[in-house]
Amino acid sequence: MSEYHSCCSRFLVTCWVVLSFLSIHSSAQAAIKTVIYPRPEADSDRRTEYPLKLLELALNTVNRDYMLMPSVVTLNQGRALKELSQERTVDVVWSMTSVEREKELLPIRIPIYRGLIGWRLFLAKKSNLETISAIKEPAQLKDMRILQGHDWPDTEILKANGFSVLGVVHYPAIFEMLQAGRGDLFPRSIIEIWAEAETYHDAGIVIEPNWMLRYPTAFYYFVARNNGALARDIETGLTMLVESGEFNQLFYHYYGGLLESARIPERTVIELNNPILPPDTPLGVEKFWHK
């Protein structure tokens, strides 16, 4: 074979290899399923870390080629749920359940926070602690101005239990109102409050040491009602993680130490009713809940 024909052959083989690689790479890229979740409202908001890690682990467990990406724009909870119900902007949202939300969206009924989202401590302005500490009866707390997100299910739960609640549109603005004295208490779940107290420590916001609210509720992943395939994959992955023990391992890695720091036996616990808890909430499945 002449040198010319030898060069041509090597060139053709090289082209074939390159084209084959590009074809395989393109097919692999096409198989990846992008799942968009709501971008947090603030850079300091650390509430996304655990649910995002759990979701990633669940989807990887079912051996599917998923890629999790934040939405282009920041979304508060209400807007994110609205966008999801209309199958726009996001593919999955994690949030507290309610009868209304389960009508509009498809819930994956495995509580990602093991029920602790309904165990609530108070954030308060440090300069107000003396006044708050003087409260001796649970009924007196109902005279305090309670801050909450205006569209959070907690707002409805607290109002139904006789608390005076001020609804706020934007999550960061709640801390500004607390700091400015435009509200007295900001109930936060026992798993959220520590990072928030750390973030806003310099603003004079601290954890109130004596009280805790508790009501039954669940925090789920939600998808659009027409997205059954994604719902099945998330549910399958979470179920496998529960059975293997990896779910609890991840959860207590993030929150085990915080439960000890809460000193629950030293607090006065006020049990509340949850009138918006859906009847299909799996309260009887013991492995889903923290005892």
Molecular structure report:
There is one protein chain. The relative contact order is 0.17. This protein is 42% helix and 21% strand. The longest helix is centred in the N-terminal third of the chain and has 29 residues, at 3-31. It has eleven helices and twelve strands. It has three domains: 1-31; 32-114 and 219-265 and 278-288, 3-Layer(aba) Sandwich (D-Maltodextrin-Binding Protein, domain 2), CATH 3.40.190; 117-214, D-Maltodextrin-Binding Protein, domain 2 (3-Layer(aba) Sandwich). The strands form four sheets. Strands 5, 8, 9, 10 and 12 form a five-stranded mixed sheet that branches. Strands 3-11-4 form a three-stranded antiparallel sheet, with helices on both faces. A two-stranded parallel sheet has the order 1-2. It has helices at residues 3-31, 49-61, 77-85, 99-104, 129-133, 138-141, 153-160, 171-179, 193-199, 228-244, 246-261, and strands at 33-39, 66-74, 93-96, 106-108, 119-125, 145-149, 164-168, 186-189, 205-207, 211-214, 219-223, 268-271. With 291 residues, the protein is an alpha/beta fold. Helix 7 links the parallel strand 6 and strand 7 (164-168).
